[in-house]
Design brief:
Length: 154
Amino acid sequence: MVSASALLLFAASAIASPLVQRQTEIPEDWNWQVEGWHAGCARSGCSYNFNITVPTIEGEIGGVKAYCSGYENGAFFIPCQILEGVNNGVAAKLLPREDESGRGPQQFAVSFLKASYEGSPYYNFTAYHETIYNAFVAPLQNFTMTPTEVFGVA
């Protein structure tokens, strides 16, 4: 079952319509922790799975911990399973390949939806990181990623 926050995450990240957009600042030094990154490519395409912790910003943003997994599709964020935290959503995707004849996608993105509270706008924060293909050749990877994009929808 897809949660309401996941649907809103997709709507906010995929809609190109005349909605009122609002800006907010990305909190300083807000690093998201990726744990257990595992990704690989085969004839059928590339896949990934990992846990991510988006920390709480006291009095501003409630953090979450989520499990993300999916396959290469290039266009759509895939909702992650929320393990801890409420009301906010997380989704991930491998970005499109730069060259179809080359190796798999070179970056992935994680999107965090800060849900509306008492009429405030929804804010969508997105972070990008270089992909690491470690399936069958290296241990699970841990690293941080920092959001670089944010927009809000009233």
